[in-house]
Predict the structure.
Amino acid sequence: MEWIIGIILFFLGASIGSFIGVVVDRVPKGQSIIKPRSHCPVCGHELNAIDLIPVVSYIMLRGRCRYCGAKIPIQYWLLEVATGLWVAVLGLLALNTMNLRWVEIMIFGLFAIPIMWIDWKTFYMYDSMLLPLIGVELVFSFVVHPPSLWERLIAAAILFALFGILYIVFKGKMGFGDVELVTAIGLLLGSQSLLWPLFAGIYGLFSYLIPASRENNDEIPNNAVPFGPAMLLAALTLALFGNQIFAWYLSLF
Ligand SMILES: [Zn+2]
C-alpha cells in the first residue's frame, strides 16, 4: 500500500516541479505564470495534456518537442524528478510519523527550489515568493511544535534585526530579500537557528567556487555571489538533520 501512496506523492510532486519550471522561466521576465498556456519556446506550438505529463512525457518524446523536434533542456525533467522525490519522501515520513513537521519542511523546500534557482540566475529574490513563505511559516509556527512558537518568533526577530542592520550598512550591496528570507528561516528553525550561520557560511564558500550564471544581466559585478541558495540549503540541512547534528555536537563534550 505504501508504495502506491509513494507513487501518487511522486507524481503530485513532479506536477508541482513542472509548475516550478514555469515559475522559474516566467517570473524573472515579469510574465504571468497562468497565461499563456505552456508552449514550445522554439516553434511556439501550444503543448497539450499528453505533452505535459510530468516526468513521463519527456521520456516518451525522448527530450524533443513533438511538433518541431527542438531539444527540451533536461533541467526541467531533472526538476520534476527531484520535486517528485522530495514530496514522496517527506510525505511518507509525515504519514508514518503523523508529524506535520515533515509537511512544513516539504512546503519550505518547494518554495526554496524556485527561490534558489531564480537567485542563482538573476541575483534576485522575489517578494511574490518570500512573503507567502513567511506566511506559511507563521501558520506552521502556530500549529507545529517543536520548535515552540516562542522559539520560532524570537529566532525570526533576531535574524530579522541582524540582517536588517546588515541591509542598512551594506545599502545597495544586499537586497531586502535576504532580510525577508532569514525571517522565514528563523520561523522554520527556532533555536536551531544558532547553527544556521555556520552552515550558511560553509555552503556560501561553495557558492564562491561555482561561478553563477549571469544571464541577461551586466549590472552584476563579476565577483558577486548569490547567497540565497547557500542560506536555503543551510536551513533545509538543519530542518532535516538538526536534531542529529545537535546530538552529535553535544556528544563531543
Ligand atoms: Zn517546438
The pocket of zinc ion is lined by residues 40, 42-43, 45, 65, 67-68, 70 (CB under 6 Å). The chain has a mean pLDDT of 92.
